[in-house]
Amino acid sequence: MASKSSQEARSADRTEQAAAALADLGAAFGVTLTPELLERALTHRSYAYEHGGLPTNERLEFLGDAVLGVVITASLYTAHPDLPEGRLAKLRASVVNSRALAGVARSLGNGGIGPHLLLGKGEETTGGRDKESILADTLEALLGAIYLEHGMDRAAEVVRALFDPLMAESARRGASLDWKTSLQELTSAHGWGVPEYAIEEQGPDHAKMFTAWAVVGGERFGGVTGRTKKDAEQRAAEEAWQVLSHRAVDTSHPEARET
Q: What pTM, to 2 d.p., does this model score?
């Protein structure tokens, strides 16, 4: 009897979670998905294996990766008619990567994709809901689901709505593949020296977090955290680039400070 009650409770929780995902992500994407297709897109392989071999989101991820790639490529090709292939490839790589996709995934709806993921116990206990690779893969799976249900034109509209700001930002910072490269290019161009990075570690070995600062000319920027040193340094470099790029504009155009 207790077992039946437990199963009913789990079923009710799952139904409630599915309804929340439909409402939240539907509003975020501006499209509706059938409950079955949405559930498939949110099903990580760890959850599938723990529940009798359910279908995973990996086939949808494969499809969504292709949809995302062709829409971003076409958008960049149209927006930058004078750029050579190598520059276009760098722009695309700076937008279509795990870190960028995970950032978009975290920004969606009420708290991002993470709360809606269907994860196994192992992934759940090791922070899978905020793991960069899982968020990026799930976003691609959701784009694949949108393509299946609504077609290429609607899927392309969703992709452009989510990624146009990233493409514009990437073009503005010179098509660098990462924020550390962008920051180094910026500081070199203005004679501000080579950026250095300071790192602090916190937490136990199995759940370690890193806090990083970018240091330019003795000035520290960041104090941001990441699950790896690389991620924390990238975030610190982004913080520094945002401040210093505006400072560079003010220096080059002093009239901007007077308006």
A: 0.72
